Amino acid sequence: MSKSMSASRERRDDGANHPQVARTIPEIRELLAAAPGKAGAVTGLVPTMGSLHEGHLSLARRAVEECDTSVLSIFINPIQFGVSEDFDSYPADIDGDLELAASAGIDLVFAPSAAEMYPPGFETSIDAGSVAEGLCGQSRPGHFQGVATVVAKLFNIIRPGRAYFGQKDAQQLAVVRRMARDLDYEVEIVACPTVRDSDGLALSSRNAYLSAEEREQAIVLFEALSLARKAVESGETSAARVKRMMRKRIAENYLVEYEYARIADPDTIQPVEKITGGPVLLAVAATIGSARLIDNVIATPPGG
Ligand code: AMP
Fold it and tell me: The domain at 205-299 falls in which architecture?
């Protein structure tokens, strides 16, 4: 490895072994080429936008456990944010993130700049089709094209055998699965369960935007999902009734601005009207203060 490279494995005062950090595509490729390369060695990728919390770290630990080389990417992807969204204020803490990545045992961190990922003249976009259209696709036009495009780039740069995504972002997971299948990526997409605070609120980097009172009210999302899941598991088959139940519960809290409560097929993200078959995705979105939060659970009808 050349001395001029900024990539380095740093050993800090605490004695912890810190991951090597690459800022450019050639750097991460060089680090990956130098990684222990026994036949069939598997690289695991955990794509994130940083500001790491226990949700991200659960993915990271799994990648470390299951793969020969683990890579965590930190990139606040500009092309997945709409013009009026929170790209400029999205929380960032690279030093804290490197500490946490080290604590999870991550080998390599890839933290490129926007110019590295999207040099002048960049124009290609990946459209995952109908799976990107429902749920958040309606209120965030272009969002999932931005996600699919950056994930495709990361897959091409890192060439992972396994890539780890959170069930917390269920539609993103479905979009990535579809994209990987349609474009013949040789990568296993591993879905990891949603990590929650003790009261049930799903961990999210955007929870940092919440005031104490907003944080208290944010729990209503998980409460609405839990009510709905119970109803489905007890045999309620009308999606309309279950959606009304979720909407009513969310609207009870005055700081919470309801956006949607929907029921969809977990793989295709197409709306479900009658809940009679296999598991369904119950998904909600709301804005609380300046934070747009989403959450979901999977519910299985009796005999489903
Ligand atoms: P983000 O940094 O928000 O883009 O998230 C990076 C990855 O972490 C995505 O695959 C998310 O689904 C996953 N993730 C975020 N929050 C959680 C959580 N609370 N539990 C599990 N995975 C999560």
Answer: 2-Layer Sandwich (3.30)
